[in-house]
Amino acid sequence: MAENMTLLWGSGSPPCWRVMIALEEKNLQGYNNKLLSFEKMEHKSQEVLDINARGQVWSSLNPL
Ligand SMILES: N[C@@H](CCC(=O)N[C@@H](CS)C(=O)NCC(=O)O)C(=O)O
User: Fold this and answer.
1) Domains in the chain, please, with CATH?
2) What is the per-residue pLDDT across 4-61, written as a single tens digit (0 to 9) for each?
3) How confident is the model at residue 62 (pLDDT cuts 50, 70, 90)?
4) 48 CA to centre of ligand 1 in angstroms
5) Dihedral angle at the C-alpha atoms of 54, 29, 36, 62, nearest 10 degrees?
6) Do 2 and 26 contact (CB within 8 A), yes or no?
7) Residue 61 pairs with which residues in a beta bridge?
8) If 5 and its partner were Cys, which of 18, 28, 31, 40 is the partner (CB 3.0–4.6 Å)?
9) Which residues contact 37 (CB under 8 A, 6 or more apart)?
10) Is the CB of 22 within 6 Å of ligand 1?
11) Ligand 1: does its nearest atom lie under 6 Å from the Cβ of 43?
12) Rounded to an integer, what distance in angstroms lies between the CA atom of residue 58 and that of residue 15?
């Protein structure tokens, strides 16, 4: 149902868990996900900044 969505998330992030839980609760499984490394500053990559100027996760490509 959410196959077009790609969730960009970071390990240990409560805001990311919140979104993942909400998607599960809404029965919106099947979305793609991409784990970003805080250590490598991947949340500040151009890919993320293009969709979230704060460079924070969670972020989503093709949101619902
Ligand atoms: N208001 C945002 C906050 C998200 C947020 O603070 N994410 C943290 C990870 S838990 C983050 O990306 N921190 C990196 C930074 O702020 O540079 C939300 O609730 O989704």
Assistant:
1) 6-61 (3.40.30.10)
2) 999 999 999 999 999 999 999 999 989 999 999 999 999 999 999 999 999 999 999 8
3) confident
4) 12
5) -50
6) no
7) 6
8) 31
9) 10
10) no
11) yes
12) 6
